[in-house]
From TrEMBL:
<protein>
    <submittedName>
        <fullName>Helix-turn-helix domain-containing protein</fullName>
    </submittedName>
</protein>
<keyword id="KW-0238">DNA-binding</keyword>
<dbReference type="InterPro" id="IPR001387">
    <property type="entry name" value="Cro/C1-type_HTH"/>
</dbReference>
<dbReference type="Pfam" id="PF01381">
    <property type="entry name" value="HTH_3"/>
</dbReference>
<dbReference type="InterPro" id="IPR010982">
    <property type="entry name" value="Lambda_DNA-bd_dom_sf"/>
</dbReference>
<feature type="domain" description="HTH cro/C1-type">
    <location>
        <begin position="7"/>
        <end position="61"/>
    </location>
</feature>
Length: 132
């Protein structure tokens, strides 16, 4: 089996459109179509992205394994839940950044969450003191 058929099978099993998957991969829907019709072979980075998006091993995509799991079923990748549209949008935007910008954004997010947690904690402490 050529990998294009496997790529299409994986995509359709999750009800993803070619456009939606293309957005996640950072390519056009027509490129996804060319992958799936074996006109164009995805490079290694793209295969890894497929693997991560769909939580399957690259060996499975390449037809070297019949089991689609990356490792064992209890791994975090297989405790998968469907992402919300907002979460998907964030991933799409994030994936379009270079590695340095991704690291900076992650640092900003961590700082914002810490600040939010502190504000929330301070607020609940004040409420506890006012009811005492």
């Amino acid at each position: 089996m050529e990998i294009g058929y496997k790529l299409k099978e994986i995509r359709t099993s999750q009800n993803y459109t070619q456009k939606y998957l293309g957005d996640l991969l950072g390519v056009s829907a027509s490129i996804v179509s060319r992958y799936e019709s074996n006109v164009l072979e995805p490079n290694l980075d793209t295969l890894i992205m497929y693997s991560e998006i769909f939580s399957v091993s690259t060996d499975y995509i390449l037809g070297l394994r019949t089991n689609s799991l990356n490792s064992n079923e209890s791994s975090p990748a297989h405790q998968y839940r469907k992402l919300s549209e907002t979460e998907n949008d964030l991933l799409i935007y994030f994936s379009q950044l270079n590695k340095m910008d991704q690291q900076w954004i992650l640092g900003q997010i961590v700082d914002l969450i810490k600040e939010y947690d502190n504000v929330k904690k301070d607020s609940s402490d004040k409420e506890g003191k006012s009811t005492a």
